[in-house]
Amino acid sequence: MALEETAPVERPLAISLFGDFAVLDAQGSDISISNRRGRALLVLLCLAPGNAIEREQISKLLWPGRFTQQARASLRQCLYDLNRQLQPFGSDILQVSHARVAIKPAKICTDLGTLEAALSGGDAHSAIRLLNETSGNTLAAGMAFGEPLEAWLAGRRLQIESRLRILADRLSSALNAAGDQRVAEELMTAWRMRENPTRRQKRVGVAVLSFAQHDEIGGEFYLAEGVVDELYAHLGRVSDIAVVGRTSVDALTGLGLMLPEFAERLNVAYLIEGMVRRTLSGVFITIQLIDGPSGREIWSDRLEGTVETFLNTRQVFSARIATNICRALGVSMTTGTQRRMTANREAYALYLQGRSLVQRSMSEGAVAKAVELLEQALQLDAGFAEAWTALAEAHVHTAVYTPCVERVARSEQAAICAQRALELDSSQGHALVLLGIHEWTRFNPGAALKYALEAYQLEPNNADVSVRLGSFLLYLGRTRAALPYIEAAIEQDPVYGRNYGMLCIAHLNLGNHDAALAAGRRMVDLGMPGLHLATVQAACGDHASAIETYYRTRLLMGSVITPPPGTGVISEETRDLYWTTAARGVCSGEPDARATYCQMLDMLHAAMADPYDPSIAWPAIWMGHASLVMKLYRERMHPANMPGLMSLWTDVEPIRQIRLHPEFISFAENIGLVTAWETYGWPDLMPGDPRLPQ
């Protein structure tokens, strides 16, 4: 009996999306796609195989500026050419209808799809190899067909990177749970090596300095602040530019630094400075782009007009300036979604003043005045999305930096403002992370992390967004996953001491003591309290230095450190006695000193106006006072005390006694941690569900 002939199995085409685009046939030979837009179309479709894209959208992305009929005709010709070039290889890979175009998933095999399959399927060794192979290679690179396509690709890249990161984190957690810590560490090292060079080395560091302002007329005039605000907004959306945060620039302003010194301290290649001058004859704006190391001007521009002209067309003229700066830097300008600002001149001036005060929230009375000014701005224009976000941040800062008793209520007010901002402008990533903060107070950290991940997709260059995402992961015990975001926030805002505090604890949690000490010292150098540095010194066994560092922090009481709500003025003698007890209890390593301070915290918890104040919660964690910590956080979590959660994951005595307490998992369930872990992966120190049979 004759054997039946079987049809040859058709192998899918191999397509490379990372770095240089390539299409290979079944024998591994290159298939040349001569049509540039045909290659770009394949890339668009391969980023999400099986998902159809509207023909109308493809036409606008690949043929921007052409008449609609002309663009449609060009797409028809492009599809015809693609089919003609691929048919000799037996590859009918496109699924084309009158309205949509898709690529058949079974007909292709992409490097992106292979990487996702390895990560989701638990093939760690293949995932590590693929991550190393794609290190430094941009996804869908070289697609230079104008700003609409670049903006579209930027959004897709962020979504894909976020998806890959979650898959890598989950696989790492599974490996740790299986006891394969070595491979888990190799995986996360490969991820960081692939991610960080792509994100950092290819971006140009730029700092926008405060503009000088000369006014010959008098009265309120905030145009200089407005120009800087618009430049931050436009340049912050350019994927190839890393704009340093305002907090770091403000920290160095007024120190009398030369321009090269500014650039060196901010770790940037370029500076932007300028001046706004108002006279009886009009307003004059000059802007210079400065080479950081030399201080030499490499580009400048001058604009003239009236205040009304600049305010009414500020997005237009600032977009023009940003485009010219990008051209001078040799990078592509990405338009993205325009901010929904106000047309009301008075509301805009109030917003600029209020937002500036929010950035100085540690100054006495600053944040209260900021709330007042921002509320006035919104009375004039209730549709001003940026002002709603700024007001939300002001409410959070009130809860954190002032002796406020109703901290959860302030957080709720912030959430209401953030929600209003998002209703007006869904691109407000910062508003999303502020919503996330309130979810922690509602014992819903899973929702908080979801908001933060969405925010990062919208604003990956915003230091406040990066650090909030990193902090939420730290609170969940996902320190390895948190570290790149915290490092990114420091890159974006390198002279902001708060961020170094998180970096200090992240390294301590990972056992990187030298790096933790360096971050803690940098935090203190920038004027922040040394409490985290002291905990690192104690963990390293240097108890004498730890006690000294902790005790010295008393000098910041009433300035950087807010007194607990309801406490009056105390004498220096009483203050020093308290801080002596605290320093020895937290840092000496002596059980008796620790027991004495724990007893004092129990009494303060029973007596203080805010029994959940960080002055109680944080040292309770550092001393491993498990019963008080679990009671306190079960009853109330608010924006001021929640940063203490990141220290729960320090694997040293006596802090680890909280995590090892028999009631810890029940506590974690009560405050929502377990639900978040089940969705986003278990902590580094708890790689699997301890409730399951071991």
UniProtKB/TrEMBL annotation:
InterPro entries: AfsR-DnrI-RedD_regulator, Sig_transdc_resp-reg_C-effctor, TPR-like_helical_dom_sf, TPR_rpt, WH-like_DNA-bd_sf. GO terms for molecular function: DNA binding. GO terms for biological process: regulation of DNA-templated transcription. SMART domains: TPR (SM00028). It comes from the Bacteria. This is TolB-like protein. It comes from Chromatocurvus halotolerans.
